[in-house]
Specification:
alpha+beta, five-stranded mixed β-barrel, single chain, globular, 22 strands
């Protein structure tokens, strides 16, 4: 049992409530805000738990004189008596708002320079400044709450998986470079000159080897590294909730993932998720939404007009339809009031996704307005309106092109329309969806060969195995992604557990036998020793925290993030190293002219 002398027990600032009235306590923290009122000094004292008001009275002249020197962000220790605030001075916005602490003793533990931006009265500051002084930025209660939220979510995930019989196992950071879809971060070896380790893009091969080793249920909250272009929801180093299971089918993995997320949601928000989540095949998602990560919080689904316009007089449509392309569109309900300038801006918007134009029809009470209407008979026009379920006040928007271009253009257009028309608000419910039955391969024009859509260890559907060599484009994978509000939360698959199948997939990807033996020989050998059927999933923890905490950037939920150019502005990494360090690594830097 803890024994404290009267007035020496430290209480967290945010825990000082009316139950402590009359108590002698000690508080330690930062000066959040200072106010001088009628000869009395009020300080809002802050620590991680929150704020409490402390009061310095002039009838204690020594302490009062010291308090007059206090400035924002000074670190202090005070002892005093908890008292109720006077009537009319209660602050209902604070958990400590009914009380204040009248100070008997003050100790300044450290002074502080004026910070480059205010902590207490924060106003929007250039992100470069925030990242340079990240240790100050993290003092802000808004950011601290997100980091603590992240901690609570991770704890919930660990508790759930432990309860489901999973074992947390660490895998190596220093491994070998293998082709997994993104550029590796390389680490030169001093002991083996000319050789390099690679930082893992994921623990993919190691978690499969743990299944071969018989652990059956593995998980890890793990750092991964990818040297790729960055954006708001991507960092060069990121954290995964990595899960692998033996003797499972896709449904088993999906059920486990849903249970984990629902449990974590209940732990951090107080309510479970509505599971099971709906499912869409990849083909259906592309057909209806133009994306394999569709946002289901609103409609604006894609409509296929290809057959209806194949014999129309509008050559732009008919020629595309007759040559194997697609003519699809969106009914922007209630958007007939868009000006010509607004429609032109939408045309410019879809151009960045390859669309050569954006045709449109404004639906009025008794007529339609459109530069393309004259190319359609009244019957053809009526069929278009019927297919679009158009009503007066609607705006129909069309793209005609190759299927992939149409999907990209309209898939992004529906998101842009939702933003412009306010279809998504803070009250809009979250929408989860599983995307299944992905193609196993896609053809890379750049590499002039088939590449794996997920990774080369994903299992094809059993019935599609004969197609791997003959027609890779028709092979479907036992792969699945979970999407939240148009953002991929996680993805996984059933893995290949038989060596002949893995060798067949490597051959379909154009890897030579020597290349396979060099880079994946240890995996193939492991699969020869009784590897069980297995599969798993990995969730982007940073992305999940960002979405659940309603943050605008992934950088707000990572303690020490990097910029979009992969720079750490605080420590100034990456940075040059000394010639001696390069010499020890047998490296020499050359710069192209």
């Amino acid at each position: 049992m803890k024994v404290s002398r009267p007035g020496t027990e430290r209480i967290a600032c945010g825990k000082v409530t009316k139950e402590l009235v009359g108590s002698q306590i000690v508080l330690k923290g930062w000066v959040h805000r200072r106010r001088d009122h009628g000869g009395v000094i009020f300080i809002d004292l802050r620590d991680r738990s929150g704020l409490v008001q402390v009061v310095f009275n002039p009838d204690n002249p020594t302490v009062f004189a010291e308090a007059e020197r206090l400035r924002s962000e000074y670190v202090i220790s005070v002892s005093g008596t908890v008292e109720l605030r006077p009537e009319g001075a209660v602050n209902p916005n604070l958990t400590t708002g009914e009380v204040e602490v009248h100070v008997a003793d003050l100790q300044v533990l450290n002074t502080a320079q004026t910070p480059p931006f205010a902590i207490a009265d924060y106003r929007e500051v250039d992100e470069a400044v925030r990242l340079k002084y990240r240790y100050l930025d993290l003092r802000r209660p808004e950011l601290q709450s997100k980091i603590i939220f992240r901690h609570r979510l991770v704890k919930a995930v660990r508790d759930y998986l432990d309860g489901q019989g999973f074992v947390e196992i660490e895998t190596p950071f220093l491994t070998r470079s293998t082709p997994e879809g993104a550029r590796d971060y390389l680490v030169p070896s001093r002991v083996h000159p000319g050789s390099f380790y690679a930082l893992p893009q994921s623990p993919q091969l190691f978690k499969q080897l743990l299944m071969v080793a018989g652990f059956e249920r593995y998980f890890q909250i793990v750092k991964c590294f990818r040297d790729e272009d960055l954006r708001a929801d991507r960092q060069p180093e990121f954290t995964q909730i990595d899960i692998e299971m033996s003797f499972v089918e896709p449904q088993d993995v999906q059920d486990l993932a849903e249970g984990m997320l629902s449990y974590a949601h209940e732990c951090v928000f107080g309510t479970p998720l509505d599971i099971p989540f709906p499912r869409l095949t990849y083909a259906e998602a592309m057909e209806r939404f133009g994306s394999d990560r569709p946002d289901l919080r609103f409609g604006l689904e894609l409509i296929d007009f290809t057959e209806l316009v194949a014999d129309s007089g509008f050559k732009v449509f008919s020629s595309v339809a007759q040559s194997g392309g697609k003519v699809k569109g969106i009914n922007a309900k209630g958007c007939a009031s868009f000006s010509r300038r607004e429609i032109d801006s939408l045309t410019e918007y879809v151009a960045q996704f390859g669309a050569k134009g954006l045709a449109w029809i404004v639906v009025g009470e008794n007529e339609v307005k459109s530069p393309i209407a004259k190319f359609f008979s009244e019957e053809q026009l009526n069929r278009l309106l019927k297919a679009a379920e158009a009503a007066p006040g609607d705006l129909l928007l069309f793209v005609a092109d190759e299927p992939a271009t149409v999907a990209a253009a309209l898939g992004n257009l529906r998101l842009e329309l939702a933003r412009r028309t306010g279809l998504i608000t803070d009250e809009t419910p979250d929408k989860y969806v599983w995307i299944t039955d992905f193609p196993m391969f896609e053809y890379s024009e750049e590499e002039q060969k088939y590449v794996a859509i997920h990774h080369p260890f994903t299992s094809p559907r059993d019935e599609d195995l004969p197609k791997v060599s003959e027609n890779p484009a028709d092979v479907k994978a036992k792969a699945y992604d979970l999407v939240l509000n148009g953002t991929e939360l996680g993805g996984g698959s059933i893995r290949i557990h038989r060596r002949p199948v893995q060798e067949q997939i490597f051959a379909a990807l154009g890897l030579s036998q020597d290349e396979v033996a060099d880079k994946f020989g240890f995996l193939l050998e492991a699969l020869s020793f009784g590897a069980p059927p297995h599969g798993g999933i990995a969730f982007g923890l940073d992305r999940l925290v960002m979405l659940w905490s309603k943050s605008e950037s992934i950088r707000d939920v990572i303690a020490f993030p990097k910029t979009q150019s992969a720079m750490d502005l605080m420590s100034k990494a990456p940075a040059p190293v000394t010639p001696q360090q390069l010499k020890e690594l047998s490296l020499e830097i050359t710069v192209d002219d």
